[in-house]
Amino acid sequence: MNSVPASESKKKANRLAIRFVILLVGLYILFSQGNVFMYSVTTSTGRYYNQTIADHFNYIQWLRYALIIPSTWIIKLFGFYTVYNEIDVMVVNGPLLSINYACLGLGVFSFFTAFVIAFPANLKAKFRLFLIGTLLIYTLNVLRIAGLGLLLGFFDSQRDNFTYHHEVFNLIVYLCIFALLYFWMKKNTKQTNFLKKTI
Fold first, then answer.
1. Residues 127-156: pLDDT tens digits?
2. Are 42 and 61 in contact (CB under 8 A)?
3. Residue ranges in the chain assigned as alpha helix (H)
4. Where do the structural domains in the chain lie, given as residue ranges?
5. Are 82 and 149 in contact (CB under 8 A)?
6. For the whole model, what pTM was predicted?
7. By CB atoms within 10 Å of each CB, which of 19, 119, 167, 198 scores lowest?
């Protein structure tokens, strides 16, 4: 049985690593800038606004509703009267939370999706990772919005002290995602030895 020379094996691993990084960066730019473009297309004040696309293909607003509605339910469970519209969650005698583009977590979704596609693993494992990661990001975002509404509802004197919640949320989500990716890669690199050869 012929063994592959160490130098050739290393070159192959390096090519695989370079391909992964290029694909990851390229897909992340494509997804993140694509979302920014779609936001402009579906927002009435956007530079590329299109009424037809905004009416029928506005996934950004669909995601916003998917965050607003369960967050409102959670806040109501704690006894607050809460109303919402297309963008805002208003806690009566509490805060007004505006769910703008930056609150949707599309940057995190873009990175995560790019990683899942770029990483060399079998399709079934990738699909399972995508479902788990997407659900994790979404759930953390709902809890962030609901938690902020509850925190500022209970402690109204602290409403000016949580201006960095986006940064805190991003830090927590990225830590959770990197932990998920680490354990997933550890499990799914036995066949390709990608992790061992490139770190």
1. 999 999 999 999 999 999 998 888 888 877
2. yes
3. 6-42, 51-56, 59-77, 106-118, 123-154, 165-188, 194-198
4. 6-198
5. yes
6. 0.84
7. 167
